[in-house]
UniProtKB/TrEMBL annotation:
Keyword set includes Hydrolase: yes
SUPFAM superfamilies attached to this UniProt entry: alpha/beta-Hydrolases
Pfam family for this entry, one: DLH
Species name: Nocardioides anomalus
Protein name (Swiss-Prot/TrEMBL): Dienelactone hydrolase
Length: 193
């Protein structure tokens, strides 16, 4: 069974993120869900962004590094939307990554914003909606295509729809059908790690 470090999205560690983690746990996986917002959740993406990116906001990179330092190296790093920033960074830079699951975001592996190349031998899944203003509109889907093409064990799953945070059952953006398919694919991925 996999040992997963799951980073929440910009609205915080919502009940929907916890429920997703709990379903992975029910399948036998160990899932760590650090709360990088210290208990705060937000009703909108804009409110979450104002907190996390505003003056006095949390140092997400430092907090993520501290959480990871207390865990074994052999992790699957997972993130939802803004949580992908930490998950992908750690998967690419921390030794011993077993895999990565990047939901609704993807950083480029080349160019100005790149962390560097994808590490050899680290499988990755990327999930997002084809008309999501952030995933498709901000170029993350193109970064995901580049990442998947660069590795022998990469998968990109694109779902029909325009919702962002579609796997979070506690938000209005929840899409039950797409979320179930995503969860099935993630469980298959974790099952082979």
């Amino acid at each position: 069974m996999a040992d997963v470090l799951l980073f929440h999205h910009i609205q915080g560690l919502t009940p929907g993120v916890v429920a997703f983690a709990d379903r992975l746990r029910a399948a036998g996986h160990t899932v760590h869900t650090p709360d990088l917002y210290d208990g705060r959740t937000f009703d909108s993406i804009q409110d979450g962004a104002a907190f996390s990116q505003g003056e006095g906001g949390p140092d997400l990179e430092k907090l993520a590094d501290e959480v990871a330092a207390g865990l074994p190296e052999g992790l699957v790093y997972a993130g939802i939307s803004s949580g992908v920033m930490q998950a992908q960074r750690l998967a690419q830079t921390r030794p011993g990554a077993k895999g990565a699951v990047l939901m609704e975001a993807c950083l480029p592996i080349s160019g100005e914003w790149a962390i560097g190349p994808w590490p050899a031998g680290v499988p990755v899944q990327v999930h997002g909606m084809d008309a999501d203003e952030f995933f498709a509109g901000d170029g993350d889907i193109d970064a995901a295509r580049e990442l998947v093409a660069s590795t022998d064990d990469g998968e990109l799953f694109v779902y029909e729809g325009d919702q962002h945070l579609f796997e979070d059952s506690s938000l209005p953006s929840y899409d039950a059908e797409a979320a179930q398919l995503l969860e099935t694919r993630v469980l298959e991925f974790l099952g082979r790690i």
